[in-house]
Input
Amino acid sequence: MMIPHRLLQMRRSYAVTALTLAMLSSPVSAQTPRAGAAVEDIIILRSLRLSRLAPTEFCGPSRTGFSEATAEDRYDFKAVATDAASGKVTNANGARVGTLHACFSPTSDPLISSFYAEGEVGGVSLVGRGQCRTTKRDFPESGITLFTCQLDLTGLPSAYVGGQLTTNTLVSRTMLGAETDPPGYTQPSIATVRCGRNDRGTECRLTAQWSRHAARLSIMALRRILNVRRPNNDASCATRRCLKDGSPS
Output
């Protein structure tokens, strides 16, 4: 079946336009993240020490990576509420949102302890390796010791590339529970868990894949159109006014 010349030109124009739009959209979608896409999860917690025991097999070298653990702790994680206007903590004893099972070992530096932990936060499992450092003793008053701790997090679900847990830690003469001696402090830690997401580009990658697919379809359509045999002069002259040389007017 012969296709009129003008219709053929229109079909070619549509195909070229679709091809151009598809090819232009592909690199933009592949390089620009989706607006509002979460690239990390940040959680603010309060830890509550439930127990401190002599190390068990859990704190063995094959798991922790250090040879001589001296303490094994268990913690609950509590949700923390803050004032939106000032950032001040208004409640550090919210709902239980996670747990931690930890081991500690001394190092050659008396201010630093090796720190290993396994636990979960909000149903997300984690494994951490790091250290704790003593920063001040008997501050802001006698009986209070300040620490800062850090864990590099692994063992996370595949949605995450990794993470870090950091703490601002205070320990009183009474190590267990929420009550401190001297009284009035929040012990032991206010912790921040920060994890980078591995799935942040999922929608972006899918958009890019669709754009490339659309481009391929447009190319196929263009090729089909270009392969259609253009009507010859005789067929064209049968239905259109022609000049003496046979070319359509």
In short: The longest strand covers residues 40-53.
